[in-house]
Amino acid sequence: MKDEELFVKRILLLTALSTIIILFLVIIFIFKESIPVFTEYGVINFILGTKWNPTGTPPQFGMIPLIVGSLALTLLTLLIATPFSVLCAIFIAELAPSTMRKILKPVIETLAGIPSVVYGFFGLILLVPFIRTHLGGTGFGLFTASLILTIMIMPTIISISHDAIRSVPLEYKEASLALGATHWQTIKNVILPAAFPGIVVGIILGMARAIGETLAVIMVAGNVPQIPHSILDPIRALTSNIALEMGYATGLHYSALFGTAVVLFIFTLILLLIANYFQHKTRVRIGGGYL
């Protein structure tokens, strides 16, 4: 029996180590391929450059328009998706009848599995003409891409927020109601604060999907490497830049796309570290552990 347990532990350890090793190999490969652009073009020029024009004379590989585009897209998406998702999770967990809850929860979880190209096609056929007609511009831009990403990440945030709300001990709710609080006061002052760390986890995972999404963004964002001055302006995200140009890039341009991947990696890592720090600071202590 002990030999079997030891064997299982070693297999699990080997699996965990192989995952870490593969991750480090990918990171090393990306950084290695990006070295030429950092050495020949310059780190400062690459990261702080304001123009991306790899076919120009001389070629320009400025990251600022792509970084600003990705950051604006992510923040606007979270600004729209977070309140709707949390309110929907509250309704499903606390207010919806049990029959409705049994229908809504699987439907929302199914939406998370729809391929991104379907969402992109929906945006291309319906949202782009609607925004062009009613708000102006070409219809391709930051706002359109944010709406599509909002629809894509809402199922993730809703599902995790719902589970976080349902995991709050029933004693909390009963104690609040026993003290004379209404159901809404209990939700606002007791359940939401206790479930907040779990809700933050859902927002983090939604943000990670928004940052990494490529195909749907390519279809509706306009793909112009510029700093947007309006939510209707077209943008190009970091992921879109790699996907659009990797097929024909050579030489320093090829290295610059790997440099874009390095910037995307660091950009994502910083955002996730900030979000995880915020989650850590808002944990609720219960007894000897945390909720």
From TrEMBL:
One of its GO terms (molecular function) is phosphate transmembrane transporter activity. It is found in: Cell membrane. One of its GO terms (cellular component) is plasma membrane. The chain crosses the membrane at residues 12-31, 62-95, 107-131, 137-158, 190-211, 254-275. Residues 67-275 form the ABC transmembrane type-1 domain. GO terms for biological process: phosphate ion transport. It is a multi-pass membrane protein. InterPro entries: MetI-like, MetI-like_sf, Phosphate_PstC, Phosphate_Transport_Permease. Belongs to the binding-protein-dependent transport system permease family. CysTW subfamily. This is Phosphate transport system permease protein. It comes from Methanothermus fervidus (strain ATCC 43054 / DSM 2088 / JCM 10308 / V24 S).
